[in-house]
Amino acid sequence: MAEIYRIFGSEMSPYSVKVRSYFRFKGVPHRWIARNAASDEDYKRFAKLPIVPTVATPEDEGQQDSTPIMERAEARFPEPSMHPADPTLGFLSALIEEFGDEWGNKLMFHHRWYADVDQAASAQTLARLSLPNGTTEEVAQRTRMVRERMTGRGHFVGSSDANAPLITGYYLELLDILEAHLATRKYLFGARPSFGDFGLYAQLYECSVDPTCGGMIRARGPAVLDWCHRMLEPRVDGDFERWDSLAPTLTPLLSYIGRYFLPWTTANAAALAAGDAEFSVDLAGTPYVQPPQKYHAKSLGVLRERYAVVAGDAGLAGILADAGCLPFLTPA
Fold first, then answer.
1. Which pTM value belongs to this model?
2. CATH classification of 5-76 is 3.30.1250.10, yes or no?
3. 53, 47 Cβ separation under 8 angstroms
4. How do residues 280-299 score in pLDDT, each as one tens digit?
């Protein structure tokens, strides 16, 4: 039995850096193992699906899917907690974590694989990471293969010529909201990181290392970029704030979630249930079209289960109603 956790991951994987950041915050002994040719044999011992991160526990159990990985570790290592004690803030943090994982990934993945400069840079980076000792020709061949494979997956997040300006608009609007909120605090809920921080930062950190999105975040969101870098080595620097101090600048983020993410993920689940090959959803007055995806529907179900536990909290219900989120969390 190994004495530490092992994280098989990639620097270009938001879910990998999310889990690594969490383990660093918790002080859980672990080793980062880059997913490449050299680690492939060990990786395959623990991976049921060919994805990262894959975590091997000290008991040699393989774990996949970043959110359950973190939740299992949280139960085993409860301090310092990533969950605010206030049930209202605890649910809002979980909502933002889900939003980051599912909507934030759409923003990142589209931009990473849409424009030529981003395709070229990302494919070469991934090729070099997977072949750290590869020859120039081997890296070039892998770069071509990665680019062809990844640019063919844009439909999974709705990446298209029609949606491209919409997705860029969503990204810039999110940056502006977060910039105002993070200008006066280190983390989303105060002076220590929360569940929501881990889910959202990881996607925006990956945005920051790409040519197009990186330029946007440096020009438009310096406080957001500082937060992304802070989240690489997060720590407790104080307490979670109370809702009344968070509300002025966190409410716009919740309204954004109610305006875009929750209508989109609800429409995705409905399309999947109906067996539709494609769905169109009105987001702030503009149609957004893409094929439905199974995982989003599954995670929406989990989010609704989380809300059911705290649904009796009138204060939380009021916050969610004002932000336009509540109808999507309590479907008829």
1. 0.98
2. no
3. no
4. 999 999 999 999 999 999 99
